[in-house]
Design goal:
Layout (H helix, E strand, L loop, with lengths): L4 E4 L1 H5 L8 H14 L3 E7 L11 H7 L8 E6 L2 H8 L4 E9 L2 H8 L3 H17 L3 E7 L12 H13 L4 E5 L7 H14 L4 E5 L1 E2 L4 H10 L4 E4 L16 E2 L2 H10 L8 H17 L2
Parallel strand pairs: 1-2, 1-9, 2-3, 3-4, 4-5, 5-6, 6-7, 7-9
Antiparallel strand pairs: 8-10
Helix pairs in contact: 2-3, 2-11, 4-6, 7-8, 8-9
Length: 287
């Protein structure tokens, strides 16, 4: 039976905040999240500081985190080989995440590259990661729908999973970039892909409104998904969504859901409560 993995994504929560959060403040919050015992922390990104100024201090923050307090592994997002090389140099990082959009329009907006160019970049990133003994996590952006009028259906997603799997990737997270997923599409995708690719760990990176979180997480879980991304109180989400009510999957909702399901997960609930309180202070001050 696959173990449940909860991935906390403070990078996703913070990256859209215009006011720069001081490194010391970030460090204090991220250390609290490490101490909670999440399987993985999506802690930052190695991308152009012009594109995402909030993540300019990712290297400094990671260097100062105390990772001896819990078995949490670190993941950072990269958009190109330069970012992958920076992540590869850091022994603290276990996973290099790459957002691969199956929407041509969104891939251009997100990384200024076409899908064809992104395939080449992904292959180069895989090579860099292998040499550094790190794993690549591919996020399939627009994995549950397309708001730009481009063709989208579960078959297109399956075709891209096949291509990415053929590159040797073993962790693929389907990303609900603009909150367009429904219980039906989530069920259809995971119940098809998970049995078809038993060697791949599929994740759910879901964006949601407060009224749809249960339907989405329940659909993914019942379809066999055991890797879930979230952010405390649902902070963050994709700025492209254009809807202030659409944010990340709230981690506290996931913990509540999986507790009800009697699932075992490695998060210290008392420490999580402290981190949750700290998030309220942090995100009310910087927003």
């Amino acid at each position: 039976m696959k173990k449940l993995k909860l991935i906390e994504c403070p990078r996703d929560a913070m990256q859209g905040i215009k006011q720069f959060i001081p490194t010391e403040v970030k460090l204090q919050y991220l250390q609290m999240l490490v101490n909670c015992g999440f399987d993985t922390l999506d802690v930052g990104s190695f991308v152009s500081p012009k594109a995402i100024p909030q993540m300019a201090d990712t290297k400094q923050v990671i260097e100062r985190l105390d990772l001896s307090t819990a078995p949490t592994k670190l993941l950072t997002i990269v958009a190109n080989t330069r970012g992958a090389l920076a992540a590869a140099e850091m022994p603290q990082i276990s996973y290099i995440g790459f957002p691969f959009s199956i929407s041509e329009i969104f891939q251009m907006r997100n990384t200024h590259k076409t899908i064809a160019q992104s395939e080449i970049i992904l292959k180069e990133i895989i090579e860099i990661a292998q040499q550094a003994k790190k794993q690549v996590v591919v996020y399939i952006s627009m994995g549950f729908g397309n708001p730009y009028g481009e063709p989208w259906n579960p078959t297109i997603v399956s075709e891209w999973v096949a291509k990415i799997a053929a590159m040797g990737i073993t962790i693929i997270s389907l990303s609900d970039t603009v909150g367009s997923s429904t219980g039906q599409t989530i069920t259809e995708l995971f119940s098809t892909l998970i049995p078809e690719y038993p060697a791949i760990e599929f994740g759910a990176h879901l964006h949601t409104s407060l009224s749809t979180w249960y339907e989405k997480i329940d659909a993914a879980y019942q379809a066999g998904c055991r890797r879930f991304d979230g952010a405390i109180q649902g902070y963050g989400g994709c700025p492209m969504a254009g809807d202030a009510l659409i944010g990340n999957m709230p981690t506290e909702k996931m913990i509540s859901y999986f507790t009800t399901q009697k699932e075992v997960f490695d998060v210290d609930v008392m420490r999580f409560e402290s981190a949750h309180n700290q998030a309220t202070v942090l995100f009310s001050q910087y927003h």
